[in-house]
Amino acid sequence: MVTKGFRNVYQVIISLVSIYVFIQCTLALFVTQIATKLAFQKNTRSYQKCMDFTKKFFVLIMTAILSIAAPSKVRITTCDDSIAKGRFFMDLQKGRISSTLRPNIVMICNHQIYTDWIYLWWLAYTSDFAGRVHIMLKKSLESIPILGFGMSNFNFLFMHRKWSDDRVNLLNTLKELDANARGLGPLAGKGPIEIDEDGVAIWDCKSQPSIEEKNSNSECWPYTFLLFPEGTNLTADTRSKSIKYANKINKTSFKHLLLPHVKGLLVTLKTLKPSIDAVYDVTIGYSGVEHSSYAASHYSARQIFIEGKYPKLVDIHIRAYKVKEIPIKDEDKFSEWLFNVWAEKDKLLEEYYTTGSFDQDQTKTTTVVDKFSIRTSEFLLVALVPSIVLLFFLKWLSPF
Predict the structure, then answer these.
(1) What whole-number distance in Å separates Cα of residue 16 and Cα of residue 36?
(2) Burial per residue of 356-388, b for 16 or more beta-carbon CB atoms within 10 angstroms, e otherwise
(3) How far apart are CA 369 and CA 17, in angstroms?
(4) Can you tell me the mean pLDDT for 389-398?
(5) 382/288 Cα distance (integer angstroms)
(6) Which of 144, 190, 140, 198 is nearest to 171 (CA)?
(7) CA end-to-end span of the chain, whole Å?
(8) Which of 63, 140, 162, 175 has the largest count of CB atoms under 10 Å?
(9) What whole-number distance in Å separates Cα of residue 302 and Cα of residue 305?
(10) What is the mean pLDDT of residues 225-247?
């Protein structure tokens, strides 16, 4: 009885501390972004570097909070036939998993719970690309006070999920991302060749950066673009709707996945083609989830942060595809390719829920396991910010 009571008190403390740290750190980022806008109105590159820092710091905040509220381990499994051995490794100097992912990639993943994106962002962080992550989100999230402002400054892509409303914004955002990655965009002091009658910017797609430029951050700005082709979390309700839609379009539904949306990913790959290095297909599995249940029912935001129910192990399986091997010129063939990828992913998840691991054939895969964490110095920075913010406000409120 005492133990249960202690656990309840402990969980309340952890929840309150997590909320406090999140609010204080978010306010600090909010102020930093405003100051950046005011200080670097005419210095585009300095402005972007500061915004990239706030973007990286945001995932540091979320990882630090999760590492305390939900101290999971992460097991990363990579396919040796598409990802070279050693891409992910234990970095003793940094005290965490590190990686050498390619600089310009699109990362696609199945969508199970609302914190999926944190683990994908963390993967980019292991390659020191946390400040260059871009995410496609639904438009309503842009209206969230303070957070919406911050995500807009991160250059996240907000979508109405209606092609006629999203087309120009999607194309312009992706084209600028591609141009900046090749050292031919606004961050290199350059602009589009022209703007068509619909308002879509046309950039130079023929020129390519030199090796020296590509290996430096002075001209070329790499990106990691995160995309969930399913569009929403897997739940009993969304799967039921997915099955009905699959029957309508004469497609086979999946047991552990929703049908992927083709249009958004296809347009993304076509538009980023001049700069993109690879597509990383990520499959996430959470321990404690059985065949007949859904991760969203086990690990909602409330359950993780308030009730202290979280996966003890997060499994991440990664394979890579060369863009030149993906049929992006033909929408029908691309649709077939994407559905085949999802069918393979569904089989992978079936094996995972049967055996509890993605690493079934150690001759074909490489696995690295460690705690979900950031560098100790970065964790201390996150912990220090709330104290600084509190002291600032106390000083501001105190009489002169």
Answers:
(1) 30
(2) ebbbeeeeebbebeeebbbeeebbebbeebbee
(3) 28
(4) 66
(5) 30
(6) 198
(7) 51
(8) 63
(9) 5
(10) 93
Token pair 């740290």 in the structure block, residue: 21
Q: How far is CA 146 from CA 34, 149, 389, in A?
A: 11, 5, 16
Burial class (CB in 10 A: 0-12, 13-18, 19+), 353: middle
Question: Is 277 in contact with 104 (CB distance < 8 Å)?
Answer: yes
Helix axes 116-126, 44-69, angle to 10 degrees: 120
pLDDT tens track for 117-146: 999 999 999 999 999 999 988 888 898 998
Phi and psi at 159, nearest 5°, equal: -120, 140
pTM of the entire predicted model: 0.92
Residue with tokens 């065949």: 291
Its sign, for the CA torsion 366, 371, 377, 382, is positive
Q: Dump the DSSP string for 272-300.
A: HTTT--EEEEEEEEETT--TTS-HHHHS-
Q: What is the mean pLDDT of residues 55-78?
A: 94
Type and span of the H or E element at 166: helix 163-181
pLDDT tens track for 79-115: 999 999 999 999 988 889 999 999 999 999 999 998 8
